Amino acid sequence: xxxxxxxxxxxxxxxxxxxxxxxxxxxxxxxxxxxxxxxxxxxxxxxxxxxxxxxxxxxxxxxxxxxxxxxxxxxxxxxxxxxxxxxxxxxxxxxxxxxxxxxxxxxxxxxxxxxxxxxxxxxxxxxxxxxxxxxxxxxxxxxxxxxxxxxxxxxxxxxxxxxxxxxxxxxxxxxxxxxxxxxxxxxxxxxxxxxxxxxxxxxxxxxxxxxxxxxxxxxxxxxxxxxxxxxxxxxxxxxxxxxxx
Length: 245
Fold this sequence. Notes:
Among the domains are: 4-56, Anti-sigma factor, zinc-finger domain (Arc Repressor Mutant, subunit A), CATH 1.10.10.1320; 141-244. The protein is 31% helix and 20% strand. It is built from six helices and eight strands, in the order ααααααββββββββ. The chain has helices at residues 4-17, 23-35, 38-56, 70-80, 97-108, 132-139; strands spanning 145-150, 156-162, 167-173, 182-189, 196-200, 211-214, 220-227, 240-243. The strands form two sheets. Strands 1-2-3-6 form a four-stranded antiparallel beta sheet. α1 runs parallel beside α3 and α4 (70-80) packs across α5 (97-108). It is globular. The N and C termini lie far apart (48 Å).
């Protein structure tokens, strides 16, 4: 029978992914993830990634009270954001929905759909890559900008971003695969506080299938090489970084 503390930790993945915890709580959660078994740790990362990728598909266009059915639609979108290939997913015992509903309701209060007023459109990603409409939506923003940086391992990372939208796409060009037993991991680095994982790059992001990240003004993006499955906090120096301001 699964440990109840594992269920609680997976419940905490939702507010953690939405930055709805304080610094001390974040540190405590990350320590618990580090101390947890490998299955629980990887399951936590899967939940965090699914929440952030789904929320990354939303435009913060207008703040308004959510419709009564909005929570259910967000939950359905999160379920669709899980990996399509069951063999690639970590088996998860479904966490309690009560904390999940509470935190997602708070997030829903400040977002509206791209294309449907008062609702959400959260299209399923293949792994961790953004769908082309998401990339196009970012580039249509008035403040859209593009930046590139070399990776110390070789190749170039290109970012298309909109601070107004709070989202960016990340693509590699001529970047070699990560070393055996390792993955590239993307981080958002705020001006103060700890870096926040935006997920591991199980598939190399490309111009046609970029990875999506959410950020705030003043943040930076960084890429590190981490052990397979990713890390709750960076364990190596960045191989590339760039300011998003």
